[in-house]
Amino acid sequence: MSQRTPKGRVVLADDDVLLREGLASLCERVGYAVVGQAGEAETLLALVAEHRPELAVVDIRMPPEHSTEGLKAAATIRERFPATGILVLSAYVEVEDALALLAGGHRIGYLLKSRITDVEEFLETLDRISKGGSVVDPSLVQELVAAQRRDDPLSLLSAREREVLELMAEGRSNAGIGRRLWVTEGTVEKHVRSIMSKLRLPEDTDDHRRVLAVLTFLESR
């Protein structure tokens, strides 16, 4: 049997030991090398400084206060080690925290812990961040869209364009959106151009900048 090429090194941070060990087992099963685990933010930062992993998976709430320790640690990692991709996990949709995190640029993601139960989707999220993309939990996108004012420019979008917008904000490429909606990539490109025009957003072929542009628009509701 041929050996699997390592996908990259990962550091995991969550004070729930069972969840952390489960994530470690899952990551290693598909080819990631888990080089460290932490139950609080200080240890997480030390592990990242020591190993310089390609990816850090961080719980948003960690000891001692269980407020935003993980989020602050993620911001520190982004500042000190920008090459490390970051996936922040949260038990609930926390809009302001998520938007602050995602404003940090590419190789970053926000995912609800409940989404981890979909193993295939979770692993796809890790791969997308490792490859330079950004990932937004669909629940966050839906909450932002639902909060729009009645006279907001989103009302200009067709039902199909709204579907494309939500998938864009999740970090999917045009090809990925096409597969999800069962349409051609060319059709998706037309929808994207229309969305950019209606929302007065600049066209950009870089996926993570498209995500940030959409989120910036949604944040200004």
Fold topology:
Blueprint: E1 8-13, H1 17-29, E2 32-38, H2 41-51, E3 55-59, H3 69-80, E4 85-90, H4 95-102, E5 108-112, H5 119-130, E6 134-136, H6 138-146, H7 159-169, H8 174-181, H9 185-198, H10 207-219
Parallel strand pairs: 1-2, 1-3, 3-4, 4-5, 5-6
Helix pairs in contact: 2-3, 7-9, 8-9
Domain Response regulatory: 9-128
Keywords: DNA-binding, Phosphoprotein, Transcription, Transcription regulation
Pfam families: GerE, Response_reg
- Unreliable spans are none
In what range is the share of β-strand residues?
5-15%
- First-last Cα distance: 54 Å
Strand line-up in the sheet with most strands = 2-1-3-4-5-6
C-alpha Rg, in Å?
18 Å
Secondary structure tally, helices: 10
Share of residues in helices: 40-55%
What value does the average pLDDT take?
82
> What is the H/E order?
EHEHEHEHEHEHHHHH
Main beta-sheet strand count, sense and barrel state: 6 strands, parallel
Q: Give me the count of strands.
A: 6
Structural class: alpha/beta
Form type: globular
What does this structure look like?
InterPro entries: CheY-like_superfamily, NreC/VraR/RcsB-like_REC, Sig_transdc_resp-reg_C-effctor, Sig_transdc_resp-reg_receiver, Tscrpt_reg_LuxR_C, WalR-like. Residues 150-221 form the HTH luxR-type domain. The protein has 10 helices and 6 strands; from the N terminus they run βαβαβαβαβαβααααα. 50% of the residues lie in helices and 14% in strands. 38% of the residues are buried. By secondary structure, it is of the alpha/beta class.
